[in-house]
Design a protein that fits this description.
334 residues; alpha+beta; 3 helices
Length: 334
């Protein structure tokens, strides 16, 4: 019943302090007010990075973590996308086509837990539910981290992040403050600065009054109080390898044949790790964190070029198993 939705979802996944309106400026976390460091002291985060696992969020090493999937399936690929040997011990990981969020996670307040549970019941009932991905809407932060690949364009005054799915783009102003009057937007207002070898991005004012507004694939809601802080740092090869192997024990590895951008298995240089913290007093009992570990990406042709992935807005609901209503002509034009 859900076969069509599941196929589309797999393709989508493969391509995939509180905000305030006060009159005073809002400082970012760790903001020093000093000018940006010289280029020689700033790590190079630019380039294509890939994380071909589902879901995108990884559990933190310690402390409260994100909502996870109650449904599991057998892992069939290794970290580089090769089929796992039938002789190896079966490994259960998050199910890529059955999104049943763990509503018992203690980070959720009661109302939020009921919403996550309702979405899971729809999923188990074979009906599914719409998400920003299935409806081709901007995903927002931190949902956008579910993307399997991104490209970072790094400049002294601005960082631009392009995501693999449907031309989603974020603009981060460097060493600046949030404006006194923050206008909510699809991806919120993002400002960044460097703390030693770490890039820190602070995001507030993410739109709430938008279709299928949710924080993750399980339908977790959010409010105007949502505040996300990202920390990016480079990892040496061995640390990256260890982190990715830990991820492979929990998150489903997407098949290379189904994705446009994958990791470069021959690259032995540094990886990139994102650690982010989420606060929203309207939804969560506490702040929580998650991690995403990236390796250098390459496209399906094995070359370092960005691949466009386009999604058409779909009012006819892929998730319900219906075809998009394409325009047709009653008679030939010629």
């Amino acid at each position: 019943m859900n076969m069509q939705r599941d196929l589309i979802l797999l393709v989508i996944l493969a391509a995939v302090a509180t905000p305030t309106f006060a009159q005073t400026l809002i400082p970012t976390v760790g903001q020093s007010g000093s000018s940006m460091k010289g280029d020689e002291s700033v790590p190079d985060f630019s380039g294509i990075w890939a994380h071909p696992f589902f879901p995108g969020f990884e559990l933190p090493l310690s402390g409260p973590g994100p909502v996870t999937n109650r449904s599991q399936r057998t892992q069939i690929f290794d970290v580089d996308g090769r089929p796992r040997s039938p002789a190896t011990k079966p490994l259960l990981v998050d199910h890529p086509n059955q999104l049943v969020g763990d509503y018992t996670n203690p980070i959720l307040k009661s109302d939020a837990a009921r919403i996550v549970r309702k979405h899971g019941e729809l999923e188990l009932g074979g009906k599914g539910y719409p998400t920003p991905l299935t409806e081709c809407w901007p995903t927002g932060v931190p949902f956008i981290f579910e993307n399997i690949a991104m490209q970072i364009l790094q400049r002294p005054d601005k960082i631009t992040i392009i995501y693999a799915w449907d031309h989603e783009v974020r603009h981060v102003r460097m060493d600046r403050l949030h404006p006194a009057q923050v206008t909510p937007s699809w991806y919120g207002d993002s400002v960044g600065h460097y703390e030693g070898d770490t890039l820190v991005i602070d995001t507030v004012a993410i739109k709430t009054n938008r279709p299928v507004a949710m924080l993750d694939l399980y339908g977790t809601p959010y409010t105007k109080a949502l505040h996300v802080v990202e920390s990016y740092r480079l990892l040496d090869y061995d640390a990256t390898k260890d982190a990715v192997e830990r991820v492979a024990g929990k998150n489903f590895r997407l098949p290379p044949s189904a994705i446009e951008v994958d990791v470069d298995p021959n690259y032995k240089g540094k990886g990139l790790q994102l650690q982010f913290t989420v606060e929203d007093e309207g939804v969560f009992t506490t702040s929580w964190s998650a991690t995403i570990t990236y390796r250098r990406g390459t496209n399906s042709l094995g070359i370092d070029e960005w691949v466009e992935t386009v999604c058409a807005e779909n009012p006819h609901l892929y998730y319900a198993g219906r075809d998009v209503d394409l325009p047709t002509a009653a008679k030939p034009d010629f």
